[in-house]
Amino acid sequence: MRIHFIAAIVVLLAALFLKVSPLEFALLALSILSVLCAEMFNTSVEAVVDLVSPGYHPLAKVAKDTAAGAVLITACGAAIMGYLILAKYILPRYGEILAMFGTASDIGTVVSVLIVVIIVVIVKSATGTGTPLRGGLPSGHAAVAFSIATAVSLNTIDPLISVLSLSLALMVSHSRLLMKIHTMSEIIIGACIGSGITLMVLQLFKWYA
Hints:
Number of domains: 2
Mean pLDDT: 87
Order of helices and strands: HHHHHHH
Number of strands: 0
Radius of gyration: 21 Å
Largest sheet: none
Number of helices: 7
Shape: flat
């Protein structure tokens, strides 16, 4: 519920800032409320199942999984609604920001990813944590994922492709967190290193090309 409330606040503030139409705002609000209601029903089902069946039972698992699935479906519907409404406001502005940096060079992209890998290995060696391929500060997977996502964004200058690339980078980073290989701070530092170094290297190649 905390995550849902945070997402709802962000979406509603974005809608107010972007000055969406009253109908669009109403549809966004309705989508948000449907997700919150689905989450509350899910919590209710889980509480009742735990009360009736404290121990493990296959039907109890089915009930909980179905309720959680309903939340997922509702959230997907809300995400689609949010995209259809907000994309026409956000993507053009994001595209203008990408265009400010310009198209990156092919050699610059390869060099930037290699530099990110080298720096990750150096930092891990300096801090004495983890191995080049697992654990430690920073997260190498997050660094490389966000490096590639940044390079893709600047090479295509397409806001939708950029968002999808960054989403994949987030999924890669989140998987490292779920597997308890890295902490949140290690992932954030890795993402910052990957995006920051890639952006800097590509701009240098652009200026001196």
